[in-house]
Write a structure and sequence with these properties.
270 residues; disordered N terminus
């Protein structure tokens, strides 16, 4: 079984990271920033042409072509020899895998995440905050074949997920970043206003965990618990599945998540 989702790139709702606006910044550094902007265009589209890149970045086609060729030469981007279109290159995958493999928090959490997956039979997600969003750096799929479409490392706006709410309730930086970025709707019950965001986080602080019912995907639910280290949430563990498999069992799932997040938090103690 596959849970239906809309074909949308979540990072489309994420504000572009601010660049150094120092007027004395070198042209070479600005070029680096533009090259990174080129690669980020592919987060929304699998393949793009030179004209597409130029239009998205507001640069001349010659500039876009020059940047693309530089990225191709380093393996960050590759060009389809038949269509002429560009896509992310294999070197991006290599570097991404290295980043994941060298993430100490993820490695520390993995044994516990596997235990939660075995005990619940649900999909288990491990998320960390980044800007106004959360990024799932590990996902263990349901053993029943109910898949959460997407790939490990997928980014979601914090207000759309139980993971985001669980972290933001105990992480002021994420809470405020999401408030500044706004609350674009996703599905029927997504948080849509700052007032609703504040109310949702108040409930999480009261209960110690977050729930999501049809907030990221219609008909799907999740329960998340923050991993709190020295008073600040640095990650979250959540279980996800069809609402009929999750919502009636929140009381049973919460103690499992509580024990799991405490075990992970202890691995981060000084």
């Amino acid at each position: 079984m596959t849970i239906a989702t809309h074909d949308i790139a979540w990072c489309a709702t994420t504000p572009k990271r601010a660049l150094d606006t120092d007027p004395h910044g070198s042209a070479s550094l600005k070029s680096v920033g533009t090259a990174l902007d080129v690669m980020e265009c592919f987060a929304l589209d699998g393949e793009l042409g030179v004209s597409d890149i130029a239009r998205k970045l507001g640069v001349a086609k010659s500039t876009a072509h020059r940047l693309l060729q530089t990225l191709v030469s380093r393996g960050f981007v590759e060009q389809d020899r038949h269509t002429g279109l560009y896509r992310l290159g294999i070197h991006i995958y290599e570097l991404g895998q290295l980043a994941l493999e060298r993430n100490g928090l993820r490695h520390a959490a993995l044994p516990t995440l596997r235990q939660v997956a075995h005990a619940t039979g649900l999909t288990v997600n491990f998320a960390v905050p980044d800007g106004p969003d959360v990024v799932f750096v590990e996902r263990i799929e349901s053993r029943d074949g109910i898949r959460f479409l997407g790939h490990v490392g997928r980014r979601f706006p914090a207000h759309c997920t139980s993971s985001g709410k669980a972290i933001a309730a105990f992480n002021r930086e994420l809470e405020e970043a999401r408030r500044q970025a706004g609350f674009p709707p996703r599905v029927s019950k997504t948080v849509r206003t700052a007032r609703d965001w504040g109310a949702a986080l108040t409930l999480v602080r009261r209960d110690g965990y977050a729930v999501s019912h049809s907030e990221s995907f219609d008909g799907a639910s999740s329960v998340a618990m923050p991993v709190v280290v020295r008073g600040v949430a640095i990650a979250s563990v959540s279980v996800f599945g069809p609402s009929e498999m999750v919502a009636p069992h929140v009381d049973r799932l919460v103690p499992l998540l509580f024990a799991a997040t405490r075990r992970i938090a202890k691995t981060q103690a000084p």
